[in-house]
Amino acid sequence: MTIEALESISFENLPKTFKTLYPGANSFTFTFVGNVDLETLKPLVEKYIGSIPTSKHVLKFTDDKLRTAKGKVVNDFRTPMLQPKVSEFLLFSSDADYTLRNKQTMLLLNMALNNRYLKSIREEKGGTYGIQVSYTLSYRPEKQALLQIQFDTNEEMADELVPIVFDEIE
């Protein structure tokens, strides 16, 4: 995003932008989950989703060819700060099918690591106020699982805490 692009945004252009991004209901896939009676759901879908306009222009997925880097990538940059800190962001990627089982596995891994890091990095080491673990499971443009771990700490503790992240995963 450039300064010029930000400056070109105006409240008056928002409806046009919205219509460009969301041309009609025929560009979307609606998924309903839960204990729903089909005979109850069907008239509601017909009334509410059926009333959303459609468009001749249907959105299609466009592969931007951007991919997660393979191997170990380290981006180390520094800037003067009044209160120096280190922000650690670790990203793990793997080929993975987009399945319910894999989603549940990633969710359980996410919850387990959040609990482990809360104990080991925050409570035992006092190394950060909070550590965030999140995941993404995608099927486009590639079938892939991502696990992201992020936390802020002081310069003195950064080298000590990162190995703990890896130890807890193992």
UniProtKB/TrEMBL annotation:
Q: Which UniProt keywords apply?
A: Hydrolase
Domain (Peptidase M16 C-terminal): give its ranges: 9-170
Hydrolase among keywords: yes
What is the enzyme's main class? hydrolase
**Pfam families xref list:** Peptidase_M16_C
Which EC numbers does the record give? 3.4.-.-
Q: Which InterPro entries match?
A: Metalloenz_LuxS/M16, Peptidase_M16_C
The terms under GO molecular function for this entry are:
hydrolase activity; metal ion binding
Gene3D superfamilies per record: Metalloenzyme, LuxS/M16 peptidase-like
Name by which UniProt lists this protein = Protein containing Peptidase M16
Q: Which organism is it from?
A: human gut metagenome
